Inverse folding.
């Protein structure tokens, strides 16, 4: 698996992702991050919180209407989707077998927000059907 880019995430969007995860407890949250990739760096500039159609603490499925609205806005703004995110309300921020099996976004960073501990924890991954590896990212 190749790693096409490093990701830079603004603090404001990082904080908003965590706030969404907490607000949607006990269910998983989900969303998209968009920005521009230049050379080997993806700079996130927009967050698209999506509706979890499953409304489940163990699964997420992005609801179609919110997903289409995100696509329309990103295309209009000239942005590419560079990451997806979802939460794990009661487990570590490590991809589950379900996460690997339902990876509909190859080639983007996958953030997992864990709310299992006292403080939220976020990790980022590159996923393929049978494996995962850490993605390089930082808050800017």
């Amino acid at each position: 698996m190749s790693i096409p880019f490093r990701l830079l995430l603004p603090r404001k969007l990082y904080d908003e992702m965590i706030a969404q995860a907490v607000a949607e407890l006990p269910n998983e949250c989900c969303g998209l991050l968009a920005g521009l990739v230049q050379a080997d760096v993806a700079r996130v500039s927009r967050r698209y919180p999506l509706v979890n159609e499953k409304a489940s603490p163990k699964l997420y499925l992005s609801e179609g209407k919110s997903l289409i609205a995100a696509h329309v806005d990103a295309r209009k703004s000239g942005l590419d989707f560079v990451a997806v995110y979802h939460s794990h309300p009661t487990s570590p921020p490590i991809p589950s077998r379900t996460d690997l099996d339902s990876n509909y976004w190859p080639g983007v960073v996958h953030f997992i927000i864990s709310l299992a501990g006292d403080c939220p924890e976020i990790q980022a991954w590159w996923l393929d059907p049978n494996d995962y590896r850490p993605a390089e990212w930082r808050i800017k």
